[in-house]
Structure formats: C-alpha cells, structure tokens
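Notes to self after the Tuesday call (sharing in case useful).
The group wants a holo model before anyone commits to mutagenesis around the pocket. I volunteered. Ligand is zinc ion. Logging inputs and output together so the record is complete.
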Amino acid sequence: MPPSTFPAVWTERHRLHDPGGEVWVGVPIPGTEVVARGDLIHQALAAAGFEIVVPDVHPPSSLRRVHDQAMVDYLRTAYDDWVAAGYPQDPGQDRVVPYVFPLPQAVADRPFRLPTAPSARAGVYTTDTTTLIGPGTFAAAAAAADCALTAARMVLGGAPAVYAACRPPGHHAGRAFFGGSCYLNNAALAAQALRDGGVDRVAVIDLDAHHGNGTQDIFYDRADVLYASVHVDPGAGWFPHFVGYADEVGRGPGEGANHNRPVAPGCGDPPWLAAVADLCAAATAQRAGALVVSLGVDGAAGDPESPLGISPDGFRRAAESLAHLRLPTVFVQEGGYDLGRLGGLVVGTLEAFAAAGGRP
Ligand code: SP5
Ligand code: ZN
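Result:
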C-alpha cells in the first residue's frame, strides 16, 4: 500500500440499489443518492492507491444486533409485495413509497394492527417519502452493512484504520425506522461489532452534514457507545427536522453519552472545526477504545443537500483531529452529493487521517 492510505472495503453490489428518485413535498424528483456515488468513490480510492477489499457476506441475522427483526423482514420483502399488489401498473409507481403514517398520537393505546394493504404498510417503518425501495434495495443495503462489518472485523484483527465505502448510507436508520436515503445503519453495526469483539467503549463521531437520528436512537440509552455529531441545526429548517438538538444528551445509563453540536447554515470551517474538537474531547473523556467515523462529506461547500460550506481543507483538518485520538478507526461512508467533488473529498479526508498517523 502507498503511504497515506489504508484498506477500503467496497463492493459493486451497491449498484443493485437504484432508488429511482425520491418524493419530496409530494413531487417526484431525481434525488441525489444516486448509483454514480458508489462508483465515483471507488474510482477515487483506486486512483489514490487504496487497497480495495471485497466484503465478507453476513447472514441477515447479523442485522438484529442493532435493528428490529420485523423491520429487517419488511425491508427484505417490501418490494416483492409491492409488485405483487400491482402498483407498478396501477397507479404506475415501481418503487415502494408511503402515503400514510401511523403517528403515535393517532394510534396509541390500542393494539398495533399491521395494515393489510402494502401501500399502507409502506408507512409503518419509514420516517419520510424520500427513501424509496426498489428491486435491489435490500441486497445493496445488506452489502453496505457487509462492508461496515468487514471493516470492523479487520480493525478488531489489528488494522489501525479501515474505510467502508457504504452505499446506501445508514445514519438515519434507527432500531425500528428508516429514512433519509438510509435503510440499515452501517455505522451502528460497525460500532456494535467492535463491542461484540471485546472493545469496552466505542465512540461514534458523525461528520455528515445532517444529524444521525438513527445512530442516536440505537445508542441513546447506552453508556458503552458514545454518539457525537456535528450537523446543520435542525432548528434552522434542516433534515431530520425533529431531532438533533443540543439538549438531547442520552437517557438512563446513556445520559451524558450523546453529544449534538448543531451549527448554523453557512457557518464555514471555524465553528464546524471547533465542534469537531468538542466531539473528539468527548470521545477522549469517555475513554473510548475504538472509533467509528460516520464520514458524510455533504457539509462541503457546493453540496446540493446542505448549506454548511465546509472547505476540503476543513475536512482534512477534521481528519487530523480524529487521527490525534490514536484509536483503531472504522470509517463508514454516509452522505456527499456533489458528484464532481465527492471522490476527492473522501480520499482527501482519508489521506489526511493516514498522514497524521491515525493509528494506535
Ligand atoms: C445520508 C444523508 O445525507 N441523508 C440526507 C437526506 C436529506 N434529505 C432531505 C430532503 C431532501 C430534499 N432535497 C431537496 C434538495 C434541494 N436542493
Ligand atoms: Zn447527510
């Protein structure tokens, strides 16, 4: 391996997931979580000399470590049930997309009844209308989980750092919900695998432009996995809108192990890097034995999905802060939608981490 690189786990199985756009404010739009993302990242890694590792295949039961079994079963079967119900012909929708949602205040205090109609079942586990399910969605999401679990296995085996080129992304997927272009929580699976492999305390640091409401949900009650995120302030009108505020600090035994640092739209590098430094300090205070980085690069200036305006140098500096933690590290790809800059941002961040000596 050339200097300033480390192994990268990637599979062409990501191409099985073509969301076919998204429905936003009722309008079908092309969407930004596109197949090309996975191939552009792969090209940039290969050009920079990163060793590309094929992931191990894990059984669906491994997803149960962080997800509700019924949701996993739903994701596995939803597309076939949708087709069998005839929606591709009438009304002409070839992706699973919800139209009704069982809001807690509308269904509380009575037995939960799984809807008979697949169109209604589509609203049971998803938070939104932007996370469509097509024929290969579950296979690709499971392959992305395979990448994260393989990277965790390699780090447990002694690799100082491994990057999992996950697509689709995962940090908006909770124990029993999915959304925000995410289906299975790759970073949470990696963190749990590190715990299961004997690491007492794991820190998850989330650099994606959006709050990782799924990862927060999965570990909210736990002290053994810290969740620390910098993201665009949901209170300023940004996804995931309902969650991601600074006063969400964890619950019960997990109180104090959840750290949200919302930053203002357009903030640029200095406030964002100050927040990254806070997150690293939280990981140090927790005495973490391993690190998972949710590496979204959608905070970059020019990205169509966020207003943060972070520079490529900002991402490199963030990587240096992470490297100075001197922890075995699994990087998990999250968002990043500026196709012209995506590969360079990812590789530049990883190279900066390696160059700063990111190893125990
Ligand atoms: C993994 C990840 O980064 N998910 C973020 C999904 C955010 N989706 C928000 C709603 C999409 C609206 N997109 C409209 C773009 C107009 N510029
Ligand atoms: Zn994002």
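Two things stood out.
The longest strand covers residues 225-232.
The mean pLDDT is 97.
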